[in-house]
Amino acid sequence: MTNHWVDIKNADLVLIMGGNAAEAHICGFKWVQEAKQGRKARLVVVDPRFTRSAAVSDYYAPIRAGSDIAFLSGVIHYLLENDKIQHEYVKTHTNAPFLINPDFGFEDGLFSGYNADKRNYDKSTWSYQMGEDGYARVDPTLQDPNCVFQLMKKHFARYDADTVSRITGTPKDAFLKVCEMIAECSAPNRTMTILYALGWTQHSVGSQNIRTMAMIQLLLGNMGMAGGGINALRGHANVQGITDQCLFGESLPGYLHEPTDAEPTLESFVTKRTPKMLRPGQMNYWSNYSKFFVSLLKAFYGPNATADNNFGYDWLPKQDTAYDVLAMFERMHQGRMNGFACQGFNPLASVANKGKVSAALSKLKYLVVIDPLATDTSEFWKNHGELNKVDPAQIQTEVFRLPAALFAEHEGSFTNSSRVIQWHWKAADGPGETREDTEILGQLFTRLRAMYTSEGGAFPEQLMKLHWPYRIPSHPSAEELAREISGYAVSDLADASGNVTVKAGEQVAGFAVLRNDGSTACGNWLYSGMWSQAGNLTARRDNSDPTGLGQSLNWGFAWPANRRILYNRASCDASGKPWDPSRNILHWNGKAWGGNDVPDMRPNAAPEEGVGAFIMTGEGVARLFAPGMVEGPFPEHYEPFETPLGKNPMHPDVPAVVSNPAARVYKGDMEVFGKADEFPYVATTYRLAEHFHFWTKTSKINAILQPEHFVEISEELAAEKGIRKGDVVTVRSNRGHIKAVAVVTRRIPVLTVEGRKVHTVGIPLHYGFKGETKPGYITNTLTPFVGDANSQTPEYKAFLVDIEKA
Amino acid sequence: MNVSRRGFFKVCAAGMTGSSLATMGFAPTAALAEVRQYKLAHATETRSICPYCSVSCGTLVYSMGDKSKNAKARIFHIEGDPDNPVNRGSLCPKGAGLLDMVHSPLRLTHPEVREPGSNEWKRISWDEAFDRIARHMKADRDANFIEKNDAGLTVNRWNTFGFLASSAASNEPGYLTHKVLRGLGAVAFDTQARI
């Protein structure tokens, strides 16, 4: 979330699209109710199902799963066409005035530079025009035909209300009604917040779904505002924290990059990763990249990392290709992996195409499952009848299952969706011989290190040089690790006049003091300050909220720098006055930025200096034109890989752009995409209020509340297929089938798309063959093995199935 | 005035001294049956966070035992933390069922192994589990470690071992997992956060 849970109460309009907060984030949803009661805010829900969020909304509009970009592009068109944008904001805080390379173009659904063989783009034309002064050229009048604003107008002109309705199945009047309500928030003192979740991410165009909405929020002037922002309602209690620790092969903690083969030296790496300033006088905060990176190397390698050995740069493995979860299972399926470990992760149930995942796990030599509970994955080799039809004798994988401690059985910090890091304490030991994750990792590492010490092996130096200063080496404590993550001075730090400001060994106050000369160590620069000399700030429990805006600045510690609303400088106009004085979170007081939040700005940067509000970009402004995206700097509607239409209605005669042209599809997976003639219905998977993923099925009370796997279909489809409420039905995709009980309901709308009816089959995902719930099929037996082109999040939300009475 | 032994002590605690009561002629009669005591009154309260969704609701975890060295704590009640500015004491149907998850019959209690081709779990000690897993990892790493790529550049990676990291783990084990994996040269890992 750019904003935070409590801040939702400051909104004038709450849009829930690509999520269902009333069921999936229930205690956060109360702040929507608070906005409705306290500010007379309205709630709009756009969803393929009439969800519980929709049930308490002021307005509900149905939409076909997988057509969100068409809908949102239509909103952009409406805002531009009807001049419902916050002009001054757009001019001041976005790249609308920037001039784009005249060679940039868009034709037949493809942007300039497409390579059909590689399914990727050469992005060289997706660039700014550079002036002789070395900075990007701009046209503050927004009139130049090559400025971002004019290019946008042209690009989105194609998404008129009729076109949108034809693609999305949303009735035209409903679409226009939503547009009108959104457009009201272009007034400087009205804000919309958008709450989304996996309903947007789990598409082959997931990142562009979110980006299209981000563009709307920029046009409305809602980014950085109290009650505004782009708010991802995330998964587990610490999914945000684990994202920030960047447990991704391609990243290092704090969203630093893992070096690749193309960056053989520290110097080449830092040069490549440090962005250039694109407009004069900008903060371009990533210019500090080397400070964060070298401090991380010091945390990893301690005294072994010196300037002479490039701070141990060579010890870091270099990435050669993608290793996201789909890529790993693809490699495993090809027999190119030997070992695998699942820590609190149940991939057999949660990764797309269970059949492929199961076959892949069967090719491993060893699998290690670290979990508090018996997961389906840990028994992928066991025959559970038709629910898991395998022959154990044929599976040669050696499987270890290690009992881990649960949340209440260890101490540490969780980061919630609001980016607030909060400490939790240990209440009891786990049952039996349960051990904490930190000990399991510590034991494995120290044993491996001992083996390498006594026996040698492949490049032992890599293990030996890792800094391991923990009091009990086989069990690092949460406190020790939190201090390392937050960062400390390795040697005395002096200011410009030579006065020592931080002594060696002291905790640093924040990332602003980190250095690239080896004098500081910091495991995650974004979390720097969470444990300062003042102690563990994540354990703070002062919930006071003096202004009533819900900021609670002394509760826990928010990254970055305890800032609660990101881009809050953009809540003010160019001169530093808040757009809405009644929701003043920041203002320029003549000498400094101050207010009810930590400024997202150099505190003494006077407005006249023209330092932009989006300090992480070289431009200093937000990007309406975003060349960082894989499939285009502007969003475009592409169909899901399994489409009920068989074509892209925006480009009906161009087969190459039916679905995301830059998405990665493996050989073998493309072949098992289903076609509409055989699988005519759009399926979408989702969560229930009473269950959390595959976890609560182990909990008796939740199993009683929602005991059995079901699927939801409309009354019309049920009548067509002769299915009655309570019948057991078989749902089939081109990858497998599941059986579940049919719920026949008016909550599933039937839509008219491109002149024909499109039916939706709704499939909750919480069931499996292990649990207190009635043993069930795994929903992801059905789902396609393809991910979003940018993030590789699988397309669980829109695929094709057939359904019949079992 | 008829005061049971338990009630008598309560009266005392309310501010009067037993001796002064006794001198006034009140002496406790023996209690015939003791009233069931409120467990919460002498439970240990621990502040924690619901591990399910990212609202990360504050919870109060109540356990028996005072956390002294010899006392084995047992969790018997979990409720919302009213001080938490987000959930303000509430929990949803997921969080309200936390206790059943903590004490689920599906909790793992000891390390196990399923040997290749076998149809059953076999209980093993932690020592055996750690040693066998480390042995597998070392053999795998030693056989497949890549020090230099085809162009002769140092890459120091091990890509035949993969790891899926938990989003239910705290930041500290999350960071440690990252550090350990890089310390082994691992490049193939991912987390639930992606999906």
Round the mean pLDDT of chain B to the nearest integer and report it.
87
Low-pLDDT residue intervals, each spanning 5 or more residues of chain A? none
Approximately how much helix is present in the residues of chain B?
25-40%
The share of residues in extended strands of chain A comes to 15-25%
Shape of chain B: elongated
In total, how many beta strands of chain A? 33
Rg from Cα of chain A:
26 Å
What separation lies between the terminal Cα atoms of chain A?
Answer: 43 Å
Described by strand count, sense and barrel closure, the largest sheet of chain B is: 3 strands, antiparallel
Distance between the termini of chain B: 68 Å
Record field, number of beta strands of chain B: 8
Strand arrangement within the widest β-sheet of chain B reads 1-2-3
Largest sheet of chain A: 6 strands, mixed
Radius of gyration of chain B: 28 Å
Order of helices and strands of chain B: HHEEEHEEHEEHE
* Structural class category of chain B: alpha+beta
Beta-strand content bin of chain B: 15-25%
> Tell me, what's the shape of chain A?
globular
Summing up helix and strand content along with how strands pair, one would put the structural category of chain A as alpha/beta
Question: What is the gist of this entry?
Answer:
The complex is a heterodimer of chains A (806) and B (195). Chain A is built from 21 helices and 33 strands.
Provide structural commentary.
The complex is a heterodimer of chains A (806) and B (195). Chain A has 806 residues and is of the alpha/beta class. Helices cover 23% and strands 16% of the residues of chain A. Chain A has a 6-stranded mixed β-sheet with strand order 27-29-28-33-26-32. Chain A has a 5-stranded parallel β-sheet with strand order 3-2-1-8-9, with helices on both faces. Chain B is of the alpha+beta class. In chain B, the strands form 3 sheets. In chain B, strands 1-2-3 form a 3-stranded antiparallel β-sheet. In chain B, strands 6-7-8 form a 3-stranded mixed β-sheet. In chain B, strands 4-5 form a two-stranded antiparallel ribbon. The longest helix of chain B is centred in the C-terminal third of the chain and has 19 residues, at 126-144. The N and C termini of chain B lie far apart (68 Å). Chains A and B meet through α2, α11, α14, β12 and β13 of A and β1, β2, β3, α3 and β4 of B. β12 of chain A pairs parallel with β7 of chain B, so a sheet runs across the interface.
